[in-house]
Amino acid sequence: MPSLKCEKSVVGDRLELQTRLIADAANGPDHLSAVLERNGLTYDDLRYERSDELLWSGAPACELEQFRQSLCGIPFVSFFTGCGGMDLGFEAAGFEHLGAFEINELFCSTLRCNRPQWDVFGPPSHAGDISEVEDVITILGERIAAPFDGVFIGGPPCQPFSIAANQRYSRSGRNFKRVGFAHGQNGGLLFDYVELVVEFRPAIFVIENVPGLRDIDGGSRLFSAVKRLAAAGYDIVGPEVLDAADFCVPQHRNRLFVIGSRLGRQVRLPELKLHPIGCGAVLPNGVPTAPNNETRKHKAGSVARYMKLDYGARDHLGRVDRLDPSQPAKTVIAGGSGGGGRSHLHPEIPRTLSVRECARLQSFPDDYRFLGPTARQFTQVGNAVPPVLAAQLAGAIRSTME
């Protein structure tokens, strides 16, 4: 049987063979992965009926290293650190990493794996629970004094305020969770973080979250938090919503920021870039040789549906979208507590993206590893602030402090 690999110049023949192999898998006893392997192929050899018609021909994607600055000696502490997207940005901007607080043990393992020199306060050695304010004050009080001449950064868990995390449920259904500040576990963490800022009085603080934090309950609770911080002597910028695609990240991702300074001057936000980066800049036709590359072995029926999709179209049964390589990707999602999010479809290969490909859309370096089951790797990547966006924000804060 002829190989797809040797038929690339003849699109019709290639699709005919691909269709035949998918039909063999759909009607026979073997999974599509086995049928492909028997013919010396992988999922990355498959194509859509319309492929290679839209290309990214603009500038290459920005890498975190492009934003690296010399060490400035300004320390920072992160809270609700996750897998470290914000921390990587501040590290690249030359800040000194003083500590990270994270409650999830798997996320702590990812942090320690990639940055063994960081002090990570979380399981199994610490609780990492910001709601235990007095314990956090005790831990921090052994390392820093108030007023703290550094930076606090923190993104309280966003799920209670997220639209994307809940839009797949009926508002009246038992699974609908967009309850905001009423959320028993996470809704009050913003105010716990505010108390830590007031206690240690860092020179600058950053609050990061989803835009829904501004919209829930008419914004009254967020305004209450901002009012408390202003009363503590901070000049406040925000809440301001930034789209990562406006800052060299090949993905549309809206994040809300509130930034406070007690230096007598406000932080100026980084300037928007004029030319967004298409996701094709970081998604080659095949899996890169980097960790977290495993791709899902889709069934024949799924691939048969996917391969008919046009650029930007949605497979409504699987609720996944084919990306357009000439445009920034749609937002990489984290998924719920029961599993990883449904990643988007590759622009040119009829399969969902790997964790590494999602991490590239998020601007993580290829050598940054995500630990745990694949579903939890997707959660870590999808919850993160893009490091390239964080580096530009950190650069603006550094300019204010210097």
In words, what does this structure look like?
- By secondary structure, this protein is α/β, with parallel strands linked by helices.
- Among the domains are: 1-41, no CATH class; 64-275 and 383-401, Vaccinia Virus protein VP39 (Rossmann fold, 3-Layer(aba) Sandwich), CATH 3.40.50.
- 29% of the residues lie in helices and 11% in strands.
- It has twelve helices and nine strands.
- The strands form two sheets. A seven-stranded mixed β-sheet has the order 3-2-1-4-5-7-6, sandwiched between helices. The chain has a two-stranded antiparallel ribbon with strand order 8-9.
- A hairpin with a 4-residue loop joins strand 8 and strand 9 (320-321).
- Helix 1 packs across helix 2 (32-38) and helix 3 crosses helix 12.
- The longest helix is centred in the N-terminal third of the chain and has 17 residues, at 11-27.
- The chain is elongated, with a radius of gyration of 23 Å.
- Residues 160-187 and 336-340 have low confidence and may be disordered.
